From TrEMBL:
Organism: Methylovorus glucosotrophus (strain SIP3-4)
The protein's name in its UniProt record: Protein-arginine rhamnosyltransferase
NCBIfam families hit by this protein: efp_Arg_rhamno
Keyword Amino-acid biosynthesis recorded: no
One Pfam family from the record: EarP
Keywords, comma-separated and alphabetical: Glycosyltransferase, Transferase
Function: Protein-arginine rhamnosyltransferase that catalyzes the transfer of a single rhamnose to elongation factor P (EF-P) on 'Lys-32', a modification required for EF-P-dependent rescue of polyproline stalled ribosomes.
Catalytic activity, reaction form: dTDP-beta-L-rhamnose + L-arginyl-[protein] = N(omega)-(alpha-L-rhamnosyl)-L-arginyl-[protein] + dTDP + H(+)
Top-level taxonomic group: Bacteria
Molecular function GO labels: protein-arginine rhamnosyltransferase activity
Family statement drawn from the similarity comment of this UniProt entry: Belongs to the glycosyltransferase 104 family.
Length: 374
């Protein structure tokens, strides 16, 4: 029997960090699970992907994981067929032989862009770009926060799963011992973050803080703070009101559960940022650091979009904390002020996650676009 499912090829080149593969993997899995598509994900750096997907065998040229074919995009790239839909993630540049063969039987070719809350995204979303040499066109697809963009990645049952996990108290991480009135905080940030400022403020605060840190490049400044050479998963350090637990780097589904179980999540980049929004809990986002402070422009665009319905005092505290955190600084009173504003921010985070989840998600919008493509 031949497989008549529509074939989608997603090309992912891992520039640095985990966001490229984080986004591509979530999208690939959702398209395969929710739309029964035949999805093949081409990835250049399998060892990086393996950190999010421990079941991945980095020695295999091709394997099926969770309903998705994962193929190694190696320097001697070989392919057997052109897909019906080709997603070039984050302008990663498709292999030349693949593009040449596309001309014979043009697929729907989509360039999936990075997420931004900036206003120009609506204008550039769905703009076509003809190939200079071949009879092919690719379409720019911009994720975003409004109906006129490509939407945000969100699995169909995500909110229900989150609600169920938050209603029960039995997720893996809420089981971790913490004092009854402690604030549970997850911390994922770039190493430029002002860890010393944050930890000193937390240690001197009047409420206990349990800080859960998955293993990443952030462990360097954390170990400096505790004056220890190396930190490993399982390590635990305290100072004043602050107690820090080092976790292993979690598989992606477990990371979601960690966010759901915390009172406040520090996140970064693109994918963890959106997952923090879906957690419906207060968060602090550190944008991916770019030259000429472009990341600060992105931060302002997001603050403006996300904040308006939040009462002014809490909004100011939240925005100020974000601006300082993104610039690697933290004033002495920023943490106590944020901690104090958390109940108001919690209410807002919960409303915003509901409001944003009422829009179509990225995978749904891609599928609709392909269906109507001419
Ligand atoms: O790793 P990042 O900094 O990725 C960045 C951004 O995506 C940025 O936009 C891009 O330009 C740059 O990479 C190249 O942050 P991000 O986007 O949050 O990706 C982290 C992924 O790792 C996300 O899918 C969540 C996942 N993760 C786990 O699976 N387990 C963990 O323990 C942690 C901390 C993260």
């Amino acid at each position: 029997m031949t497989d008549k499912r529509q074939r989608w090829d997603i090309f992912c080149r891992i520039v640095d960090n985990y966001g490229d593969i984080g986004v591509c993997w979530r999208l690939a899995r959702q398209l395969a699970h929710e739309y029964a598509l035949d999805v093949r994900l081409w990835v250049d750096a399998l060892p990086v992907a393996q950190r999010l997907l421990p079941a991945l065998d980095t020695q295999l040229a091709e394997q099926i994981l969770d309903g998705v074919t994962i193929a190694h995009w190696s320097p001697d790239f070989q392919f057997d067929r052109i897909a019906d839909v080709v997603i070039e993630a984050f302008a990663c540049e498709l292999p030349e032989p693949y593009i040449n063969d596309m001309a014979a039987q043009p697929p729907v070719w989509i360039n999936l862009e990075y997420l931004s809350a900036e206003a120009w995204v609506e204008e550039f979303h769905l703009q076509p770009s003809p190939h200079p040499r071949l009879a092919l066109k690719k379409t720019f697809f911009f994720p975003g926060f409004t109906e006129n963009t490509g939407g945000l990645l969100r699995e169909r049952h995500l909110m229900k799963e989150r609600d169920a996990a938050q209603a029960g108290s039995s997720t893996t991480f809420s089981a971790m011992a913490s004092p009854a009135n402690a604030l549970r905080v997850s911390l994922f940030a770039y190493p430029q973050a002002h860890i010393t400022g944050l930890f000193n403020a937390m240690a001197n605060g009047d409420r206990p803080v349990v800080c859960l840190i998955p293993e990443s490049s952030l462990l360097a400044p954390v170990s400096q703070f505790f004056d220890t050479e190396t930190l490993q998963p399982g390590d635990h350090y305290s100072q004043g009101a602050l107690s820090v637990h080092i976790l292993p780097f979690l598989r992606q589904t477990e990371y979601d559960q960690l966010l759901w179980s915390c009172d406040l999540n520090f996140v970064r980049g693109e994918d963890s940022w959106i997952r923090a929004i879906w957690a419906g809990r207060p968060f602090v986002w550190q944008p991916y650091i770019q030259s000429e402070d472009t990341h600060l422009v992105k931060l302002e665009a997001f603050l403006q979009r996300y904040l308006p319905p939040l009462g002014t005092a809490a909004a100011d505290v939240w925005a100020t904390f974000h601006r300082q955190w993104a610039q690697g600084q933290l004033a002495a009173d920023s943490w106590p002020r944020l901690a104090h504003a958390l109940p108001a921010i919690q209410q807002h985070a919960s409303q915003q996650s509901q409001a944003l989840a009422a829009q179509d998600d990225l995978a749904a919008k891609l599928v609709i676009f392909v269906r109507n493509f001419q």
